[in-house]
Design brief:
Glycosyl_Trfase_fam3_N_dom_sf; globular; EC 2.4.2.18; 15 helices; magnesium; two-stranded parallel sheet; 13% strand; alpha/beta; five-stranded mixed β-sheet; single chain; 7 strands
Length: 330
């Protein structure tokens, strides 16, 4: 068994790819992995380490074919706010606007309900959704790429992550390793000051356009509570900016207003949202949907993006899409 480097040692991109290859290939003990991940998280991962680790995970994933222009919207998790499932709802709205969405996600590792948990509570058969992912993406413009189906090397890592109960570099690697090979994304991370570091990692990997966002209170999505740090990554470069919900003609609301619960609770809230329920949850979803529609190239205007997403709810298109998705995943 290999011994992992001391956490104080910063790894170059190639070295990180090699080390995480050892971890994913089972060449080191669970105890070593837990120690390494905990210590690395405590001293903060570098952009080289994130990019190298993501390359190791990408090299071992099971890919799917996806239409040109497919996007993903997800958060890294681990923000501790236990909010309702915003990116899951955003995926439905954006797909209902005609943008194919390959939603990459998992069960909860450090939250109460991950994307997979909530979608399952809504009636989506996770096993069938995985088996029919390419079909539903091609025919409906949406699919769920359950991490365990596409990252078999993660099988032994997930229990370690759950035992640690805190965010680790694996939270950061997942969004950079979408099995559909998406070139456009909205990725939320839980540390505002870390946005430029994560954006630098994404730039090393290359993208057509990706937004990296973090709410000022440490939310791993665009927050309607206040301001947000946002990195606009294009190609191998990025620029930083500040954004807030007023730019999308949306009101502010505290994080507590979108506090979630278990999968059943979150599923009921999402169902109500699709039926047109107003309030902070809708506003948070519209704000993040606007960002996703911008990176997808559907608009460059935040207000227009929010209005497009709102119409996907009010017309019933997003609700019908969910019903069709559940029906096809049998």
């Amino acid at each position: 068994m290999r011994t992992l480097p001391a956490a104080e040692q910063r790894l170059g991109e190639q070295e990180a790819e090699e080390v995480f290859g050892w971890i994913l290939d089972g060449e080191t003990s669970d105890e070593e992995i837990a120690r390494f991940l905990r210590e690395m998280s405590t001293r903060s991962e570098t952009s080289d380490e994130i990019a190298g680790a993501a390359r190791a995970l990408r090299a071992r994933l099971i890919p799917i074919d996806a239409p040109k222009g497919t996007v993903d919207c997800c958060g890294t998790g681990g923000d501790g706010h236990h909010t309702l499932n915003v990116s899951t709802a955003v995926s439905l709205l954006v797909a209902a606007c005609g943008v194919p969405v390959a939603k990459h996600g998992n069960r909860a590792a450090s939250s109460k309900s991950g994307a997979a948990d909530t979608l399952e509570a809504l009636g989506l058969n996770m096993e069938a959704a995985g088996r029919t992912a390419e079909k539903s993406l091609a025919e409906l413009g949406i699919c769920f790429l359950f991490a365990k189906n596409h990252h078999p090397a993660m099988g032994r890592i997930q229990p370690i992550r759950q035992q640690l109960g805190v965010r680790t570099i694996f939270n950061l690697m997942g969004p950079l390793s979408n099995p559909a090979g998406v070139k456009r994304q909205l990725i939320g991370i839980a540390r505002p000051a870390y946005v430029p570091i994560y954006a630098a990692a994404k730039a090393k990997l290359g993208t057509e356009r990706t937004f990296i966002a973090s709410g000022d209170e440490g939310l791993d999505e665009l927050s309607i509570a206040g301001g947000n740090e946002l990195a606009d990554v294009t190609g191998n470069d990025f620029e930083m900016r500040r954004v807030n919900p007023v730019q999308a003609n949306l009101p502010h609301a505290p994080v507590e207003a979108i506090r979630g619960g278990d999968p059943s609770h979150n599923a009921k809230a999402l169902e109500a949202l699709l039926l047109g329920a107003p309030g902070p949850y809708r506003d948070a979803v519209l704000f993040n949907a606007a960002a996703t529609l911008i990176v997808a190239g559907k608009t460059e205007d935040w207000t227009t993006g929010a209005e497009m997403a709102g119409e996907a709810i009010d017309s019933g298109a997003a609700q019908q899409l969910l019903a069709d998705w559940i029906a096809i995943a049998q």
